[in-house]
Amino acid sequence: MILGGLAGRRLPGRRMVLAWGLGERRQWTRSALLVRLVQVLAGGVVLLLPPHVRLLVVVLMLLGLLAAVLGPSRAGAAIAVGAGVFGWVAGYGAHGSPSVIRVLAFALALFVLHDATALAGTVPLTAELRREALFAWLRRSGLALLVAGLLALVVYGVGGLVSFTTSDPLMVAGLFGIVATLIAAAVLFSRSLR
Amino acid sequence: MIGRWLPTPALTSALGVMALLPLLAVTLSRPDLLVIALPIGVSTVLGLLRRAYRLPKVDLRAEASTLLEGESTRLLWQIEAVEPVDVLRLRPVLDGWIELPDGGRQVCTTVRPGAARQFGYRLASTRWGRGRLEGIGLTAHTAHGLLRADEVLPMQATIRILPLREGFTATDVVPNATGVVGLHRSRRVGEGVDLAGVRPFVAGDRLRRINWPVTTRTGQLHVTATYSDRDTEVVLVLDTAVEIGESSGAGRSSSTIDQAVRAAGSIAEHYLRNGDRVGLLDLARPSRPIRSRSGRSQLTRLIDILLEVRGGAVADVQVARGLARISPRALVIVLSPLLSDDAANALAELTRSGRAMLVVDTLPEGVAIPEYGPWTELAWQIQMLHRENLAAVLLGHGVPIVPWLGAGSLDAVLLGLSRLATVPRAVSR
């Protein structure tokens, strides 16, 4: 056939790659974008709560947030959380004593950032997060916050009774935290990751 | 099913926070760092204590296994879990002419341990052919997103998408009505419903055929004579050597193969409903003709073959053999866009054999040609001139060519062919 003989060849170019990218963006779902919005908002609060915001912390935080939003299944969240904690510690100095409200607000914001990133890791941008999954997730997070809140009361209650300038109560509490970490690791690895 | 669980970056981040912050709290005498670590730590420990080991049971099926072009059905998910899986991401692996227009390509859901969940999404067919459910991509997260397992569940389910068949009808006059039963009027007198006249009674005539008004008037027994009802054989020949145009599905742009398949389906259904015998020959697969038969099962068989039409090059020798097997008294309806020289040679061969034949032009009106380069338009114009040449040659051999316009497209041509069938002529066999 004549047309076959005169047919030219087309090579894929930049336009096709861009078109593929734009095409993918059209398939992003509202639920996935909402989770990433929560990540960004929580990251902003973590960044702005410490009294003195340092440039290095801002840069690290923004890079970590960007990585956490675009690739929550990678190490971006660790960078964002690490930058946030560094900013908090550096903001108050080695022996600072922030107000209870600020501490609770920062703890909540850091937890929301970590939790939203974990959820974003389960929901790619093109996936639809159904209502039942979201509500179940929020229920579990709420329960963790409730238990953490009670434990925080205990910590501050003990702190009210015993001065934290002596090292013994704090050492006990710190050891408690390390033991909790070891228990978590033991539960995780004692039964094989099947 | 036991899953292979792997840690996620969220778990690494959580363990890092749980180890580092209490250490810093002790080192720097900062109890606030302990409080900051508490929510992440508690969430991690609670999650790991209630983690799942087994993956849930997932089932996927389509409500309907046969659709018409453009029709939709529902894709149904059924999930049963024994252990707490926090987020379950499901991706149906689809192939062929089906799509999920209202979402459902990737779905994240959950199900409580010991419970079942069912939900569905609209599954639409885009074009005639087959759609396949080939598997389920499954990603499960447990321990509040800290552990993850991936699995692919294979499955095989096929959805038949039938071509849109317009309400095609044609005249009941056909060139060679020779079968035993059918709805076509033959030229022979016999058992039937069409009146052939009234004649005197002869020995052997059936008593219920006696025409009493004429008998009473003439005083001699007369009977009513009728033309016998016959069926005919119709062979559809598909020329799918070239596909021009974009096949976008029902209600949108059609290609030459789309037109051919839809027309073939409509014509086959019409003649099979009338009790005729219909066969099919795809010139791209001439060694596998479908023999002419009648009945509903033949329609199902023909539709199944039409769903597999792909197009391809026409091999001369096999085509010649395939065409030679067509009965000399069959009505041959060729569905062709008249763009292939090989197909034109095959048609010329058929014409010389003296078979009653007509060509249905399947080139869509205003077909859009993709741009291949600066010479595309010129090449297409030359192709159209070549096509006109081919058509003129066929017309010169007495082969009528009609565009496909649905109901009544073939009536005038069939009447002409029927008259031609009564005229004696020389043929080569």
Key structural traits:
heterodimer, A: 194 residues, mainly alpha, globular, disordered N terminus, B: 429 residues, alpha/beta, Immunoglobulin-like, Rossmann fold, 6-stranded mixed sheet, 9 helices, 30% helix
Could you characterize what this model shows?
The complex is a heterodimer of chains A (194) and B (429). Chain A is an all-alpha fold and 194 residues long. In chain A, 76% of the residues lie in helices and 1% in strands. Chain A has helices at residues 2-6, 14-26, 30-48, 55-70, 76-92, 100-122, 131-161, 167-190, and one strand at 128-129. In chain A, helix 5 (76-92) packs antiparallel against helix 6 (100-122). The longest helix of chain A has 31 residues, at 131-161. The relative contact order of chain A is 0.10. Mean pLDDT of chain A is 78; it is low at 1-22. With 429 residues, chain B is an alpha/beta fold. Chain B has helices at residues 9-28, 31-49, 212-218, 256-273, 296-307, 316-324, 341-352, 376-396, 411-421; strands at residues 6-7, 57-62, 66-68, 72-80, 85-96, 98-99, 107-111, 116-125, 129-142, 147-162, 184-200, 222-230, 233-238, 277-282, 290-293, 331-336, 356-361, 401-403. In chain B, the strands form four sheets. In chain B, strands 1, 3, 5, 7, 9 and 10 form a six-stranded mixed sheet that branches. At the A-B interface, helix 1, helix 5, helix 6, strand 1 and helix 7 of A face strand 1, helix 1, helix 2, strand 5 and strand 7 of B.
